[in-house]
Inverse folding.
């Protein structure tokens, strides 16, 4: 996501070429020979949208606020109107980057009151998402709300209702749902490429202090410079704690841990690819393995979810894993396992591997056959050979394929472009409030399960805890 620098974007647009919007899909035969799997570059259609001006404000100008804004400014016609943040150093940084005349404030309501602002990006700490989203929709703004859509499950219902009633665009910021790679995985699954889906293993591992959320804390961090009293307005009263402000993900009072930070990406991706409405039972457990820095949410966590049969899919089991001290060095992968193969989703790249059972049942080899009398073995061997042709006894093979996104491709740019397209044309977005809630509710239920040590029952159709 973070490689959509102007240079790589430019390079990518050059690759697409001035004449057409499509990139060739020719197999790269030399690589195919090396990797024993055919490799294809995914088709990519450049989005076109009218260049009508859209005036944007960013609420929460931390790390993701910067990334989201930089990407938004690559979409033609998008203009920055204002930035809001609680930490004074970030407002100073905003003026340094975007000019001293930029409207900056610590009070997001100042932004919502301005008539010249069409859309807001909510990139604050999770605990603030619902409150700001509701206030922004009430003031007639289009909303791009970072994941997780809400901090508590019961905050989701008013947000969904407000988004529906407002007639405004509401999109959640899990950019992977706009990835051409994910779209390909969805298409391959629907086409039966791996047979019937029965399991999804989704992993997001890291092995670094920053990966474990220990971001650099500025030297001037204080209750004053962070507007601490305002920060905790939507949560419990607490004494100033720089870690709770800058490493908020690790603290349940303001953050949602690995579940809200990373399970959510795996869930959004899985739901998009499978068209699923969500799981019916959720269990999660975790431990404090390495980053013993005062955090009260685990650094190693797993979730298990059972997805019931639906119109879109057969029942499947989802396992989620986040390990912040993983000797793998880190990995992000969703493996969709079916009766005839596996689709592996690695970022925007997709690998399809096949394994087909022979038509004939197993007979001989590691079997009980050799333990029978010689006469019985011979008689049964004869019968088996008469019943099944050599062809039926063999595993059928099917070519493995690797699909790669073109160089410089950015799902983040696609996701944000989709948002502005919807603002301009009124067309629906994929990751609307309902989609966002269907992903965040089971993620947050993982935290509930972890704390209560209970299996959480969820009704994925009515979107209610049971
Ligand atoms: N889509 C993605 O891949 C992705 C990646 C990273 C973060 N995120 C999401 O983006 C959000 C921000 O994450 P981050 O890494 O930028 O955190 P961060 O701590 O770097 O930034 C959050 C900022 O929000 C500000 N803030 C908090 N409450 C506020 C309020 N009431 N009004 C105005 N500003 C307020 C803080 O001052 C801080 O500067 C989170 O919800 C996170 O889950 C999404």
């Amino acid at each position: 996501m973070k490689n959509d620098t102007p240079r790589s974007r430019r390079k990518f647009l050059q690759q697409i070429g001035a004449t057409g919007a499509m990139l060739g899909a020719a197999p790269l035969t030399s690589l195919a020979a090396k990797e024993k799997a055919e490799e294809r570059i995914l088709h990519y259609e450049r989005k076109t949208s009218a260049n009508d001006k859209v005036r944007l404000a960013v609420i929460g100008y931390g790390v993701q606020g910067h990334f989201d804004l930089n990407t938004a400014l690559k979409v033609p016609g998008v203009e920055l109107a204002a930035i809001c943040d609680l930490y004074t150093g970030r407002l100073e940084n905003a003026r340094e980057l975007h000019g001293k005349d930029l409207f900056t404030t610590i009070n997001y309501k100042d932004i919502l009151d301005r008539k010249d602002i069409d859309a807001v990006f909510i990139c604050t700490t999770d605990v603030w998402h619902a409150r700001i989203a509701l206030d922004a929709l009430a003031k007639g703004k289009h909303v791009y709300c970072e994941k997780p859509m809400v901090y508590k499950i019961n905050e989701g219902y008013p947000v969904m209702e407000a988004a529906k009633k407002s007639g405004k665009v509401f999109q959640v910021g899990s950019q992977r749902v706009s990835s051409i790679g994910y779209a390909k995985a969805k298409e391959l699954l629907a086409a039966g490429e791996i047979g019937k889906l029965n399991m999804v293993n989704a992993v997001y591992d890291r092995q670094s202090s920053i990966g474990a959320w220990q971001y650099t804390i500025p030297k001037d961090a204080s209750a004053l410079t962070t507007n601490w009293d305002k920060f905790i307005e939507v949560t419990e009263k607490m004494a100033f704690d720089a870690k709770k402000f800058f490493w908020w993900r690790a603290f349940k009072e303001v953050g949602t841990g690995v579940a809200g930070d990373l399970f959510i990406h795996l869930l959004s991706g899985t739901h998009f690819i499978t068209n699923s409405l969500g799981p019916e039972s959720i269990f999660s457990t975790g431990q404090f393995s390495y980053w013993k820095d005062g955090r009260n949410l685990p650094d190693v966590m797993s979730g298990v979810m059972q997805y019931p049969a639906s119109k879109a899919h057969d029942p499947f089991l989802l396992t989620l894993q986040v390990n912040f001290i993983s000797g793998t060095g880190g990995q992000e992968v969703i493996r969709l396992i079916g009766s005839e193969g596996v689709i592996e989703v690695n970022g925007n790249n997709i690998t399809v591997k096949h394994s087909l059972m022979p038509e004939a049942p197993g007979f001989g080899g590691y079997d009980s056959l050799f333990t029978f009398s010689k006469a019985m073995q011979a008689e049964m061997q004869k019968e088996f050979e008469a019943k099944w042709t050599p062809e039926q006894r063999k595993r059928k093979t099917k070519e493995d394929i690797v699909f790669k996104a073109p160089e410089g491709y950015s799902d983040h740019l696609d996701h944000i472009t989709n948002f502005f397209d919807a603002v301009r044309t009124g067309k629906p977005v994929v990751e609307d409030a309902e989609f966002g809630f269907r992903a965040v509710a089971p993620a947050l239920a993982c935290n509930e399960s972890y704390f209560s040590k209970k299996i959480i029952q969820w009704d994925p159709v009515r979107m209610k805890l049971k």
Q: What stands out?
A: The longest strand covers residues 197-205.
